[in-house]
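Hi L., both proteins are below.
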Amino acid sequence: MGDGRADEKLMAGRLYLLLLVFSLLIFSGCRESRDSSWVDDRAGLLQKDQVERINRYHAVLLDQLDVHFAVIILDKPTEDIDKTAVDEFGTLGKKTSAARGLLFLVDPGSQQVRIEVRYDLEHIFPDGFVGNIEELQMKPFFAQGTIGQGIEATGELLVQKLLDEEPMQTKHDQQYSDQQYYSGGAGAKVDTGAEPGRYDKKPTADPSIYSGAVTPEDALNLYKQVLKNRIKDPDLALYTPETRKFFSKWVVTDAQQVNELKSLQQHVPAEIRVQNDLAVIRYAVEDRTVPPYFLRYGENGWMLDFAVMSRVIQMNHRNQWRMKSTDHPYMFGFADLLFDENGFPILPSGK
């Protein structure tokens, strides 16, 4: 009997030890997963694919641009989002070579958002710039209830500003997506509650102004006017019917239009290729920051085909374009180019 009880105790001890080891392994795995995640969606507002995309993109930002960019979405309203941002920041930025941390703190309950900036990024993202980005970029997305898209789109503009300021400090690759204290520094907050109708896509007073382009270049110049005048009407005759449908479901912000107009004004098309009723406006292959524009001719003249562009062209973390798919009718415009394994355009040797 004594030996039986001893065996039972031994088995129980072994079972306890196995359970303990198993629990430690689970805890360790969860902790590692949390530490390697850039998104802490406590409110469960983001879709799984959005979280995965943000995680991949922000992982590349840390590896290639030396920026630790975290996103926290609170599940309970906070009375002081500034203090909460400082508390939540912790040692964010510690994984970088210096205090290069960014925190995107979203409080959906109180309709507030704050971007917290660490010391070594203050000169790139001062309070005024951050405040404008929040007001002009984030509020329109939040007003439409598209928080995930807003986070991704705002991240892209922040990265563009970083690349403008530090073009020589980034690692040159073609991927797609010791300071003790890291809290403190710059930052700004904004209330995301929008006035009713402020961000509605109202029709233009005279939509005929933006139609009748005789050449593809005329259409691009009309589009520059659309950007300059902050026109967000998705039903412009300047767009293909598919593009109008695409824009009707997409949030277009002032910040995006300002950024795109600036890019188009700073670059001149390298060539325009036309085949029947299709056209491709291309920029210098060496400058991949300006993507090609696709156009189609119809009853309204030349029209921009953003529907196909959005499907087949993708920008990486350094805002360089790549061809995500070659299954589209505009490939004639790239017959003289090669594309590497990631879809980035390259000139054939000797050219």
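That was the first. Here is the second:
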Amino acid sequence: MIKTSAEGGVGRLQLARPEKLNAMDAEFFAELPKAVERLEIDDHVRVIVLDAAGRSFSSGLDLVSMAPNLASSATVETITRLQSGFIKLALCKKPTIAAIHGHCIGGGLNLAAACDIRICSSDAVFSLPEVKLGMVADLGALELLGEVLPRAALAHIALAGTTFSASEANAFNLVTQVFDTVEDLREGTFALAAQIASNPRPAVLALKEHLLASRKELLPAKMAKVAEINAALIGSESFQNSLPTFLKARVHLHETSI
């Protein structure tokens, strides 16, 4: 599900389940914290790029495989385990760049939010649709995007749960650059990563440490709170009523292309 590699000071975390639009299953959640750790402790890696194989960054949680046990296993402890890799990425001591193309939905947007820099191609489409399922985005997007987006923009994204385009993401300040094509995105991403990697390492690490100062103190507590909220919401009648429609839409998404 996740491939890691390193070359020229640039580490790469690549989502590698393209046949499912890189939907996040149980294997993904188990792999993510380990994959981040491998690159974080590698002394040869100075910056980390997060990208994805196939035609989309990520369609989010793999509800098809995880839904049967979702309601019954949605305890605070279970949700906290799912959050662990996202927190690990968000608190990574090395600079991180998310290169986004195609779908960046739900868990995918939560994952991108954990990176320091987000850039995308013009075909990217974004959404936080959790509210439509009767739950709250609980993998960090609300907390992390709250650091960079105007409050009204974040409220718009989270409360409406609708899909928005790359140009809208740029207007929201969700991404810092939009490339015309996926090929241009990949070239631009690794050029940016190489530029960061070429800067004096002590200064880069010190800068990243400074940027993380308040996040280290606040993020774990905020994530624990939203885990409590979702443990209650996922067991509710509204969640159970919304799940079949949401599952049907997800199956259709995996069977079609942008």
